[in-house]
């Protein structure tokens, strides 16, 4: 990917009881940093489909998207403009099977504990902190805003 591009990303916080699922990445731009399952939206791909695909690829889980916390615009550590669509979800199937390339660990963590992680432990801390605050406040928005916009029924 060329520097100074616009990158579209789908990101998902998977909830189970009072815990959220996070992954530890080992990619050149995120060595041993925690993140939510997420990844690039491919050309022509529906935003919601991208979120489901990324979770499945990175974790092995199938999920049901439940809400959105919003859309986040930031400059990444690679100097790209990133527009990130963040969703909440619940597991609907599958089994934990971490993506072999780039994902080295995972854990279920309470939001309060996630918020206490050091900045250096989080990938793209400038966007993860606002997402975590939204999750803690339960500031969720209906996912139908994407359904209506995309013409999905």
Automatic annotation (TrEMBL):
Pfam families: NUDIX. InterPro entries: Nudix_hydrolase (IPR020476), NUDIX_hydrolase-like_dom_sf (IPR015797), NUDIX_hydrolase_CS (IPR020084), NUDIX_hydrolase_dom (IPR000086). Signal peptide: none annotated. One of its GO terms (molecular function) is hydrolase activity. Keywords: Hydrolase. It comes from the Bacteria. Residues 5-130 form the Nudix hydrolase domain. The keyword rRNA-binding does not apply. The keyword Hydrolase applies. Belongs to the Nudix hydrolase family. This is Nudix hydrolase domain-containing protein. It comes from Pullulanibacillus camelliae.
């Amino acid at each position: 990917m060329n520097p100074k591009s616009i990158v579209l990303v789908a990101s998902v916080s998977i909830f189970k009881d009072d815990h959220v699922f996070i992954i530890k990445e080992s990619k050149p731009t995120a060595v041993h940093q925690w993140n939510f399952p997420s990844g690039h939206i491919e050309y022509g791909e529906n935003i919601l489909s991208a979120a489901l695909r990324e979770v499945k690829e990175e974790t092995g889980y199938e999920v049901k998207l439940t809400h959105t916390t919003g859309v986040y615009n930031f400059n990444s550590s690679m100097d790209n403009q990133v527009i990130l669509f963040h969703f909440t979800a619940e597991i609907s199937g599958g089994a934990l099977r971490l993506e072999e390339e780039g994902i080295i660990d995972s854990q279920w963590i309470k939001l309060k504990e996630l918020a206490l992680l050091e900045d250096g432990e989080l990938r793209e801390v400038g966007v993860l902190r606002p997402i975590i605050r939204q999750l803690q406040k339960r500031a969720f928005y209906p996912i139908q805003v994407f359904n209506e916009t995309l013409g999905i029924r």
